[in-house]
Design goal:
Helix 1 (11-22) packs across helix 7 (216-227), helix 4 packs parallel to helix 5 (143-163) and helix 6 packs across helix 8 (249-257). By secondary structure, the chain is of the alpha/beta class. Helix content is 38%, strand content 17%. It has a 7-stranded parallel sheet with strand order 3-2-1-4-5-6-11, with helices on both faces. The protein is built from 10 helices and 13 strands.
Length: 315
């Protein structure tokens, strides 16, 4: 199968592309390098079944790519990046997604759209199930991403209802692993970069807020299972993917300290609208594809930190 993958130069995109290539598929990677890694594309391009197109999905999608299946990951995905240019983030989430859906409809191909746990906002329910409508501040500094992604989901399901598009939607919770960038603003990469530099780890608020961290290999396994799932029932989703093993941010710093000794913490003010608790209900993924993450946090951090030590040119 020839699979289109927007946002291919991002953390999840790189890992998903590698997995699809190992399965024997061809991958048409699309990115404009707003946050993605050009070095990763050089590595992927060593595979003869990988083809790259530099393109901004805010413009109509190229029509001559002969794609059989489309995966849409394109969007800045961490606060430091999506808040840098909120209007850009909104445009990618809305106009960009619409362009992808238009292309898929004209080409009569399925779409797997990558949404986010941010659609739940600062949740008042835990764990967060796919039936929960969320608690999002539509005027806050995170709204460009939170509401942009919510509208992208609306577009997906309206294309399904109105135009019969074969679309699936996944909601990704906190994920970590190889190919994270040291400046991407994700909590684990931030902590590891600070620890390797010998700096204090920046903990926002009192550190009692919780997250669940899923190792990238587990995530990719679940995504590919769901991508190729066929059923006589409606399986469009949305479907949560992540870990449901909750940990406080302070306890996460201690886990980092088990791999990088002599760390210290610096407490900083909590950012506006930062979620207090984030934990997915994974029942739907378990039911549909018998999926549950296997890699525990200690082992995943060990692999991640080792990769970062070997691949970050400057820390």
């Amino acid at each position: 199968m020839r699979i289109g993958l927007t946002g291919v130069a991002g953390f999840i995109g790189i890992n998903l592309a590698n997995n699809l290539l190992m399965q024997g598929h061809s991958v048409v990677g699309v990115d404009n390098f707003y946050t993605g890694s050009r070095n990763a594309i050089k590595t992927l391009s060593k595979n003869p079944r990988f083809f790259f197109v530099e393109h901004d999905i805010r413009s109509p999608f190229p029509q001559n790519l002969s794609i059989d299946y489309m995966c849409n990951l394109a969007c800045p995905a961490s606060p430091v990046h999506y808040q840098k240019d909120p209007l850009y983030t909104i445009d990618v989430s809305t106009m960009g997604t619409k362009n992808i859906l238009e292309y898929a409809h004209s080409a009569s191909i399925p779409v797997l759209h990558f949404s986010t746990s941010e659609v739940y906002g600062n949740s008042k329910e835990t764990p967060q199930s796919e039936d929960y409508f969320g608690n999002v501040n539509c005027t806050g500094p995170r709204a460009c991403y939170d509401e942009g992604k919510r509208l992208a989901e609306t577009l997906c399901f309206d294309y399904k209802r109105q135009r019969g598009l074969n679309v699936k939607v996944v909601r990704i919770f906190n994920t970590y692993g190889p190919h994270m960038k040291q400046d991407d603003g994700r909590v684990i990469s931030n902590f590891v970069a600070q620890a390797l530099r010998g700096n204090k780890l920046s903990v926002y608020g009192d550190g009692t807020q919780t997250r669940c961290f899923c190792y990238i290999d587990d995530l990719v396994e679940g995504l590919t299972r769901y991508m190729f799932l066929e059923s006589t029932h409606d399986i469009s989703g949305p479907v949560n993917f992540g870990s449901d093993k909750e940990i406080t941010i302070v306890d996460l710093t201690k886990k980092i300290g088990e791999h990088i000794p002599n760390i210290d913490i610096e407490y900083k003010p909590m950012p506006e609208d930062d979620p207090v608790q984030r934990r997915p209900d994974l029942s739907r993924a378990k039911t549909l594809i018998s999926w549950y993450p296997k890699v525990d946090l200690y082992a995943g951090l060990q692999k991640t930190i080792e990769w970062m030590k070997n691949n970050w040119s400057k820390v």
